[in-house]
Amino acid sequence: MRNSLYKKNIISINDLRRNELELVLNKSAMLKKKPQPHLLKNKIIASCFFEASTRTRLSFETAIYRLGASIVGFSDGNNISLEKKGETLADTISVISSYVDAIIMRHPQEGSARLAAEFSNKTPIFNAGDGANQHPTQTLLDLFTIKETQNRLTHLNIAIVGDLKYGRTVHSLTQALAKFKNNKFYFISPDALKMPNYINNMLDKKEIYWKRYINIEEIISEIDILYMTRIQKERLDSTEYANAKSKFVLHTETLKNARSNLKILHPLPRIDEIDRDVDYTPYAWYFKQAANGIYARQAILSLVLIEKHL
Amino acid sequence: MEINKLQVEAIKSGSVIDHIPAHIGFKLLSLFRFTETEKRITIGLNLPSKKLGKKDIIKIENTFLSDDQINQLAIYAPHATVNYINEYNLVGKVFPTLPEKIDKILICPNSNCVSNNNLITSSFIFKKDQFSNMNLKCKYCEKEFSKNIVLSYQ
Q1: What are the record's GO terms for cellular component (chain A) (predicted)?
Q2: pLDDT: which is higher, B132 or B30
Q3: Distance (Å, whole) CA A8 – CA A120
Q4: What is the pTM of this model?
Q5: Which of A141, A170, A218, B60 could form an SS bridge with A293, CB 3.0 to 4.6 Å?
Q6: A112: which chain B residues are within 8 Å (Cβ-Cβ)?
Q7: Contact B112 A110 (CB under 8 A)
Q8: From the list A108, A133, A205, which residue is nearest B142 (CB)?
Q9: Is residue B63 within 8 Å of residue B37, measured between CB atoms?
Q10: What's the 3-state SS for A252-270?
Q11: Residue A55 designated active-site
């Protein structure tokens, strides 16, 4: 099978074409059904976390071990000599790229993964989050979970709730789902945290349906996917936050008119935007979604590092 | 053109950037790093202009601007003309058109963008929104800004 992802940098979900997304999702499904522990035997992968992100790091590292590769790296930028000595990110990446077969990088500055790719001497870079910009493997696992639960990535009604302004996962997810036909988007957020114009403009340009709603109850009976995100207290003043908190918290009673196929997703960590009782409903899928991160990351790592797949 | 020859010394060979909006000439000098050259540069500010009322003009001796440089002028001086001079004669006239991308000159308004924090140069691509407004998208942080926001940030 021709693999156009071979040796590609995975920086932004926007860089991946629809057929490449499908390739990753198919590979994820294959790996979930039939693990292939020796796919990356003899490969060494650097896990460079310039800021702490335990969940993403452990997910990537688990994926690496499951593929039989080895890891070098660091998990917190504050404790590495590179930053203390004042070395530039470009130099750091240039050096590490000569040691390993791929670099997974988390960095607080937006665009850092794109910069790293310019200095990595063709060693592939995997963006594990660059500030508020992109987190492409989160989007891949979101897509994988949506496809797994709905059997398709087209003709879906998707409600996205919470911090739509700063939440990079919802921007990337919307951009990715916009590559597939006949999806409809329902955006639910406080005024101060609504979806940025560049996302709305992109949807308009592609003539994709989207609409803002005030609360989840209004559209619960129409949707297939309810993607919840955390409203960050520090983004709103105290009155706005108090209003938002009551309006955008998901309770079991909100779900009484839900479609039977509805799945609730969340990039996690969840604070209190999903009531704990919802965990026991058949709609709650966020922990299974997080578990799918392993397969999605295994898939993208193996596709980038191996040219031919059976 | 005759008037300008009287007000700003003619050059024997090089480029003349004419019809720069008044008050922009000085900005162009620094943004395009024209001041970093050893070549002789003459500049006229607030000259009378039929087209603009007032205009600035920059003359750079023995330097011929590249197509890229000329097109990048379009963001600040959309009505500028670049005249190529040889032996005091006009041998070419170029009108800038907005390029697809613009490197080095602008600063990303996103303070957390890596291009503001490392020894690298900025890079933007031009994008039109559905209302035909001109936006600039940062290659690094992928944020899209209206042209005016980026220009006012410089």
Answers
A1: cytosol
A2: B30
A3: 12
A4: 0.88
A5: A141
A6: 114, 140
A7: yes
A8: A133
A9: yes
A10: HHHHCCCCCCCEEECCCCC
A11: yes
